[in-house]
Every structure is written in structure tokens, then in C-alpha cells.
Amino acid sequence: MEKNSLQNVWKFKLSAATVTLIPAAVGINYVAKAFAEGLKLPLWLGSLGTFLASMLAGPIAGAISGFINNIIYGLTLSPISTVYALTSIGIGIAVGILHARGWFASAKKVLPAAIIIALVSAIISTPLNVIFWGGQTGIAWGDALFASMVAKHVSIWIASFVDEFVLDLLDKVVVAYLAFLIYKQMPKRMIYFFKGNEN
């Protein structure tokens, strides 16, 4: 289990390490999301940098990274992305808390952590989907499931949540394991540096 206590997880210091980490995390999010959209993958990948920032520097750093990325991505490539800045904040907070509690300590624990993060993401995103896009997500196979459920007179809120959750589940499992593997390959000195323990 990570040695970070829950008492320390909310500590946020705008150190040189954090100032370096947040733009890097935003860049990772941006490139990963553009890559997924360019290849029309059935997932987003746009929270990889948020995961890493939260794991390295805590939930506030992750939330800031996710929020900034959504704003920049929305202003440059996809206006839709701006709406989901709130979702990215939720993801950053969830990852940071779960990481501090040891949920990313082993490959076996990453799966349930990813499911929890997918739930958080879906709960925040569903009202946004309903308000702005009639309940759809913009991913074809998820929206096909949504249309099928609505045709069977399922509530638009339930259909939208299922649409969002099945996509989030796939996306967050892939991103969680990618972040886990990257984090495990980082030198301990680098991890301590970003956590504010340069000694």
C-alpha cells in the first residue's frame, strides 16, 4: 500500500515539481484523446495524464490537470470537451483518493479502482449528456445501446447512464492499467520528487 496517508492526500503545494507536472499531464491527456478520436476508437483515453498527476501529486493536481485539458481541448479541437471539465475534476479526485488508499498498489487492485472511477465519471457525465446531447455520448456503439433502450421505453436517464457507464468502464480500465504500468516504471526518486519529498 502507498505510504501516503489520507491526511496528507489533500495537501497541495504549487512547487516546481507540480508546475512541471500539470502541463505535462495536460499534454498527455490532449495527445491521448486526439489519438483516440483520430482513430475513432470506442474510448476516449483523455484522462491518462489526469491519472498520472493524481497518482504523483494528489487529487488536486489531477483535478486541475483534467480541468485545464478539457478547456484547452474544447477551445482547439472539440467544443464538446469543455462541458466535461467537471467530469475530469471528479476523475482526478477519485484517482487521487484511491491511489492514496492503496488501490493502485497491485495489478489485481487496479480493476476495482477503475470500476469505481468509471462510476464516478458516469454519474457526473450523465446529467451533462442529457442536458446537452439528449442523453447520448457521441461514441457510436454506446449510442446504439442508448437508442435501443429508449426504443424499449427505458427512461432516458437510465439509458444515458448505461450508455455512459459501459463506455467509461472500458475507457477507465484501459487508462487505469496504462497509468499503473507507467507509474511502476518510474524511478523512486522521481516519484518522491513529485510528491514533495525531494530528500
UniProtKB/TrEMBL annotation:
Q: Which organism is it from?
A: Lactobacillus porci
User: What are the record keywords, sorted?
Assistant: Membrane, Transmembrane, Transmembrane helix
- So where does this one cross the membrane? 12-31, 43-65, 71-98, 110-134, 154-183
Which named protein is this?
Answer: ECF transporter S component
Query: Among its keywords, does the record have Membrane?
Result: yes
